Amino acid sequence: MSTCHLLASRRNRWIFLTHLVCVLGLFFLAIHAEAGCSRPIQVPVAVAGLNVVFKDNKYSGIMPDFLRLIETKSNCRFVYYYVPKSRQENLFESGNADLLIATVKTTRREKLGTFISLVQLRATVISIDDQHLAIQNVRDLFARSELRLVVVRAYDYGPGYQAILEEMNRQGRLTIEPDPVSVARTMLNNPRYVTIMAPTLFSGVVQTEAMLKPLIGKLRYDKLDELPWTASGIYISNSALNISDQIYLKAQLEKYAASDVVWKSYQSLYPPEVVKIGLRQRDTVP
Q1: Domain count, the chain
Q2: Which residues pair with 82 in a beta bridge?
Q3: What is the span of the domain harbouring residue 204?
Q4: What is the per-residue pLDDT for 8?
């Protein structure tokens, strides 16, 4: 082959590769421009204080506001429907819900989805302040036979929490309600009851439910060593969503979870003493 033919061949090959790179680049940009969720994302929600507020057939609160931010920045749309907490869990476990929101990270849930941490929270023993002495430890709770424990069905704050429920149930001192409003109402009607719950959640319920206003300023939060800090946030289903939707949602949620938008929402909505005892930023080291 002559030198001219060799140069021409190399030039043609270079032109071809250049065109190929351009075409692939345009193809990538087109895909990126159209990136988003392939369908509306199904989100069952349960009342969760100021995390999720359902009023006049409208959803608001910290979690819907956070997802609304995702909507404005992406091609994803979220469809909410109201269910009890236990039903919310069942839908996610059976692969019939795309997201599980306002929930804590647990070993059982890790098998079902990808977790996006938003904050860290700590459950405490919550009681009406002028009715009982402070509960110093879990032995104190077990020993004071006049106290009864009321909790929400399907709530899970880890192994220590489950152990407390098992012992109180063994003693015949455990009552289970379908939602936090029912728990607070039970305590209001019978001060012998205490609960274990995230302080922000319980405080939010008291703030949003008119019937519970008498509890404002009358609550005490007692920490227990058996109830450590745990991550709280959103699970993305491994089974309800296709892989591309999972990847895209994870990227979007992580992007805005890394900002302080959720933390600032909590700080603006809850009393400082409630935030101090029960909440901290997601990346805080224990």
Answers
A1: 3
A2: 45
A3: 124-222
A4: 46
